[in-house]
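ok, trying the design again with the full structure, not the truncated one.
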C-alpha cells in the first residue's frame, strides 16, 4: 500500500512524488511527505537509505557504488567490453567518500562443471562467488565472507570461457589489469628500429616489468629476440599486448611456460615460485635440480633426506663465542688499567671512569653466571657445557683479567656429542608448548613476552583468528585493543610493534584450541640481547655519543662565550691602563716643567 514517509527535508524530489522500487518481479511505491535530495552529498544518500529502511518493514535497503580503481581502457581479452559501470559495490552502510576503496587482490579458480570461484579483497575484506559455471554470461554476485556487503560484476554478453585453469587465469589477469593490481608497462618501438634497439627499449623497463630481452643468433642469417621473466613461477608470467600491431607480422613462440615448482615433503605437496626453497622446513634450504620419476604416481621415486647433529660446527661456534667474550673482557680490563704507583688511570684507559662501560661489564658478568631454566639442573649453566670461568694472571704484553672463559677442545666436543640437545638449550632460545600442532619456526629478540597462550580459531574473521592471551588466559592488549597474530598458509606470525614481534610458528591444527607456550632465552640469546641493547642504531652507545656530542657543543658554546667576555675584559683593562698611562705621562710632564722652573729660580737667587 502507498505510504507517506518522511525521508528527509531537502529540495530535489518534490513532496508527494511517487518513487517505485522494483527487483524485476515485485515492486512497491513510496510517496514522499517532503522534498528530498539524494545526489547532493553522501550524507543525504545515507539518510535516505537509512530512513527508507526503517520505514519499510522486511526490506533490505542497499546503495550501489562504483569501484574507485577500475580503468576501462586497461581491460584486456577475454573481458574486452567490460566497463566500470558493470562492476558495482553494494552495501547498506557507506562512509562519506564518493566511491568505495580499491580492489587489492583478485583470484579466479576455473570451473569443471559448476564449481568455479571468483574472489577479491577490498580494504582487507574478502568477497567470494562460488559454484560458477564454465561460461560467464551473466551478472555474478560476490558476497563478503564477514558482512552482508556484496560486489557485482556483470559479464552479460561476454560469454567468457571459464572452463580451464588457463582460461580462469586469463579472466583473473584481465581484471587485475583493469583494477591496477597487475601493472601494464608500455614499450615504444619506432619504425626502422633494429633488434638491438628493441631489446634496449624492453630492458629499459625491466625494473618495473620484470621482463628482460636479448638478441640470440640462431644461425648466420637468423637473429631473434628472446624474452624472459626475471623471476620464476606463475606469479611472474607476462603477456604481450600488441596495441599498435607492431608484432602482427612477427612469429612468436612460447619456449617455456611459466610454472611453479611442485614437490612433496613427507607426503605434503608444496608449491613455490622458485627452485630454491628456504621456508618449507625451518633452517633448511632445498635446491630442486631435476624432476623425480613418476611424480604423483604410486611408483614415484622419493629422495630420503636425513639430518644429523653437526658437532664440529657447534664446537667451533662455541669456541668463537669464547674468543669474542674474552676479547671483550680484555678490552674492559684495558680501559680500567691503573698506574701501580699513582693508582691513576693510565693514558690508554680512555673509558676508565665511564659509567656506561662499567654498567655493561657488570651486566655481562651477570649473564655469564646466570642459570637457564632448561628443566635439567645438570645442564643449566655455561660451566655445564664444558667451559671454565677463571681469572687470567696476565703476561708482559697482556693485562690481567678476571672471569674469562676457557675450554678444552676434546672435552667440549665429547660433552656436545653426548648431550647435544641439553647443551643447545643452555645457549639458544627454548620453547615448550602443550600442543603437538605448533612448532617454533623463527624467533626474534624483539619479543618481550615469555609465557603466553594462543587462542586459535581459523573459522574466525581473517586477522582475528589468532588471539594473544597472557599465561593466565587473559587478553593481551596494546593501546586498549586486543593483540592478534597473523595467520597465512599454516604460519602464525607476531606483528611488528607487539610483545611477540618476530616470533613465527608453524601450525598444523584445524579445530579451535588454546595453546600454552613458554619461551626461555639461553645465555647466547641473552648476551646478544644485551649487546644489541647497547650497539643498535638507537641503543645506549648511540644515545650516549649523541648526549656527549650535545654536551661538547654546549661546552664549545660556553667556551666561546667566556673567550668573548675575556676579550672584552682585556680590551677594557687595556683601555683603562692606557688612559692611566697617559695621565701619568701628563703628570710627569708637569713635574718636569716644575723642576725646570724651580732650577731657574734657584739660579737667579
Amino acid at each position: 500500500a502507498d505510504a507517506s514517509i518522511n525521508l528527509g527535508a531537502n529540495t530535489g524530489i518534490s513532496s508527494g512524488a511517487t518513487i517505485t522500487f522494483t527487483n524485476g518481479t515485485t515492486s512497491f511505491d513510496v510517496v514522499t511527505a517532503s522534498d528530498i535530495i539524494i545526489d547532493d552529498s553522501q550524507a543525504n544518500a545515507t539518510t535516505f537509505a537509512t530512513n527508507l529502511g526503517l520505514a519499510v518493514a522486511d526490506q533490505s535497503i542497499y546503495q550501489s557504488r562504483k569501484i574507485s580503481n577500475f580503468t576501462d581502457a586497461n581491460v584486456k581479452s577475454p573481458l574486452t567490453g567490460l566497463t566500470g559501470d558493470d562492476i558495482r559495490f553494494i552495501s547498506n552502510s557507506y562512509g562519506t567518500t564518493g566511491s568505495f576503496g580499491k580492489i587489492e587482490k583478485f583470484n579466479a579458480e576455473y570451473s569443471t562443471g559448476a564449481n568455479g570461484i571468483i574472489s577479491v579483497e577490498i580494504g582487507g575484506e574478502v568477497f567470494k562467488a562460488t559454484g560458477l559455471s564454465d561460461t560467464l554470461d551473466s551478472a555474478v554476485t560476490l558476497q563478503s565472507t564477514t558482512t552482508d556487503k556484496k560486489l557485482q560484476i556483470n559479464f552479460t554478453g561476454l560469454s567468457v570461457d571459464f572452463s580451464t585453469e588457463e582460461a580462469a587465469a586469463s579472466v583473473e589477469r584481465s581484471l587485475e589489469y583493469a583494477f591496477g593490481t597487475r601493472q601494464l608497462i608500455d614499450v615504444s618501438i619506432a619504425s626502422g628500429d633494429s633488434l638491438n634497439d628493441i631489446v634496449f627499449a624492453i630492458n629499459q623497463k625491466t625494473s618495473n616489468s620484470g621482463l628482460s630481452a636479448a638478441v640470440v643468433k640462431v644461425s648466420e642469417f637468423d637473429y631473434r629476440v628472446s624474452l624472459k621473466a626475471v623471476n620464476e613461477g606463475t606469479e611472474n608470467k607476462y603477456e604481450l599486448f600488441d596495441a599498435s600491431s607492431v608484432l602482427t607480422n612477427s612469429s612468436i613462440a612460447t619456449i617455456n611456460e611459466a610454472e611453479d615448482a611442485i614437490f612433496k615433503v613427507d607426503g605434503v605437496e608444496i608449491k613455490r615460485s622458485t627452485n630454491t626453497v628456504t621456508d618449507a622446513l625451518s633452517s633448511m634450504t632445498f635446491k630442486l635440480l631435476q624432476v623425480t620419476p613418476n611424480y604423483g604416481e604410486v611408483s614415484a621415486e622419493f629422495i630420503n633426506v636425513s639430518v644429523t647433529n653437526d658437532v664440529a660446527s657447534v664446537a667451533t661456534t662455541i669456541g668463537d663465542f669464547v674468543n669474542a667474550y674474552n676479547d671483550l673482557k680484555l678490552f674492559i680490563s684495558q680501559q680500567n688499567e691503573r698506574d701501580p704507583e699513582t693508582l691513576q688511570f693510565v693514558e690508554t684507559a680512555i673509558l676508565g671512569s665511564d659509567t656506561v662501560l662499567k654498567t655493561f661489564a657488570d651486566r655481562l658478568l651477570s649473564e655469564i653466571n646466570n642459570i637457564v631454566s632448561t628443566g635439567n639442573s645438570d645442564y643449566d649453566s655455561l660451566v655445564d657445557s664444558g667451559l671454565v670461568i677463571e681469572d687470567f694472571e696476565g703476561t708482559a704484553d697482556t693485562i690481567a683479567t678476571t672471569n674469562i672463559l676457557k675450554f678444552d677442545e676434546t672435552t667440549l666436543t665429547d660433552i656436545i656429542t653426548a648431550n647435544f640437545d641439553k647443551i643447545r638449550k643452555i645457549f639458544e632460545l627454548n620453547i615448550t608448548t602443550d600442543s603437538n600442532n605448533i612448532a617454533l619456526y623463527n624467533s626474534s629478540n624483539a619479543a618481550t613476552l615469555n609465557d603466553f597462550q594462543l587462542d586459535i580459531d581459523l573459522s574466525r574473521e581473517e586477522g582475528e583468528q589468532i588471539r594473544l592471551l597472557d599465561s593466565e588466559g587473559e587478553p593481551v592488549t596494546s593501546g586498549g585493543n586486543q593483540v592478534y597474530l597473523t595467520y597465512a598458509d599454516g604460519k602464525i606470525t607476531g606483528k611488528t610493534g607487539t610483545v611477540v614481534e618476530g616470533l613465527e610458528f608453524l601450525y598444523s591444527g584445524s579445530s579451535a584450541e588454546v595453546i600454552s607456550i613458554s619461551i626461555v632465552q639461553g645465555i647466547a640469546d641473552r648476551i646478544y640481547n644485551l649487546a644489541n641493547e647497547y650497539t643498535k642504531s638507537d641503543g645506549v652507545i648511540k644515545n650516549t655519543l649523541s648526549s656527549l656530542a650535545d654536551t661538547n657543543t654546549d661546552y664549545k658554546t660556553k667556551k666561546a662565550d667566556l673567550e668573548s667576555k675575556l676579550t672584552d675584559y682585556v680590551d677594557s683593562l687595556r683601555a683603562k691602563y692606557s688612559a692611566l698611562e697617559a695621565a701619568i705621562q701628563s703628570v710627569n710632564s708637569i713635574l718636569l716643567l716644575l723642576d725646570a722652573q724651580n732650577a731657574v729660580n734657584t739660579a737667579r737667587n
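Keeping the full-length input from now on. The chain has five domains: 4-61, 65-179, 311-426, 428-535, 548-605.
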